[in-house]
Design brief:
Strand order of the largest sheet: 3-2-1-4-5-6-7
Structural class: alpha/beta
Bound molecules: 1,4-dihydronicotinamide adenine dinucleotide
Number of strands: 7
CATH superfamily: NAD(P)-binding Rossmann-like Domain
Largest sheet: 7 strands, parallel
Radius of gyration: 17 Å
Strand content: 5-15%
Helix content: 40-55%
CATH architecture: 3-Layer(aba) Sandwich
CATH class: Alpha Beta
Number of domains: 1
CATH topology: Rossmann fold
Number of helices: 8
Shape: globular
Length: 244
């Protein structure tokens, strides 16, 4: 059996890194993207040691992302799994968010995800493929300071369903993962404020933030043949937060 390949956007840290390591340990040839990789090579020795190849590309740069997909297909024959993980948030009140800030979140969290799904589909259309989009529980439930972010994540969930239907007959599965509150740089602000963290933990039945590696199992399951009849679905990984 040829080694399976996976491309994970935003794999330099946090959830993307956790998923990348999980797939590497499961035997995949792992490719990840990020910004400023070439300028900070020393910071990514962990990836080199594990044989994970990090490639520099902004997710919203369509040409760069198309080139990366092409490169993987040239070297390995096919790209089995695409995981659209890269994303940004802004802890800004809805009344104060600027048009530029809103646009950047929309471009990164939604437009780039669509572009990458499309580029992957066009490249793999003969072989079929497997897409996993990292959305968020905030695409399902509301909270403060997350208006545009929540909107983009809800849009990713809705788009995932539509792409799953449109591309099912071409042998593609398209699913989403919704993390709850995971211990990464994105939630750094919360951790620094003990009172907010304590309040948040009250609402998480498992009484802890998630770890990046908690997402790897969910992604590996959706990527596996064991999930071959699952498409257009959203798998929530949140320690029970949205079960309340
Ligand atoms: P993080 O901030 O720790 O890491 C984000 C990664 O995406 C980094 O590698 C960063 O360089 C990359 N990235 C951001 N913008 C990019 C761009 N334009 N081009 C290329 N790479 C870019 O965040 P975290 O927590 O690991 O988040 C990963 C995904 O999980 C995001 O889509 C986020 O919205 C989602 N998520 C995170 C949650 C959390 O509690 N941490 C909860 C729910 C969803």
């Amino acid at each position: 059996m040829p080694q399976k390949t996976v491309l994970i956007t935003g794999a330099t840290r946090g959830i993307g890194r956790g998923i990348a390591i999980g797939f590497q340990e499961a035997g995949y040839a792992v490719f990840g993207t990020g910004r400023n990789i070439n300028a900070h090579k020393a910071d990514f020795s962990w990836a080199k040691e594990k044989g994970i190849e990090l490639l520099e590309a902004d997710v919203s740069n369509q040409t760069a992302m198309e080139e990366i997909i092409k490169k993987i297909r040239t070297s390995h024959g096919r790209l089995d799994v695409l995981i659209n993980n890269a994303g940004i948030a802004a802890n800004t009140p809805a009344s104060r968010i600027t048009p530029e800030e809103a646009q950047k979140i929309i471009d990164t969290n939604f437009k780039a995800v669509f572009q990458n799904c499309q580029a992957y589909y066009l490249a793999q259309r003969k072989e079929g493929g497997n897409i996993i989009n990292v959305a968020s529980v905030l695409g399902m439930v509301g909270t403060t300071l997350a208006s545009v972010y929540s909107g983009t994540k809800g849009a990713v969930i809705a788009m995932t369903r539509s792409l799953a239907i449109e591309w099912a007959s071409s042998g593609f599965r398209v699913n989403a993962i919704c993390p709850g509150f995971i211990d990464t740089d994105m939630t750094g602000m919360i951790k620094k404020r003990e009172a907010i963290l304590a309040k948040m933990l009250e609402f998480i039945p498992q009484k802890r933030l998630g770890k990046p590696e908690d997402l790897a199992g969910a992604a590996l399951f959706l990527a596996s043949d064991g999930a071959s009849y699952i498409t257009g679905q959203t798998l929530v990984v949140d320690g029970g937060l949205t079960a309340m």
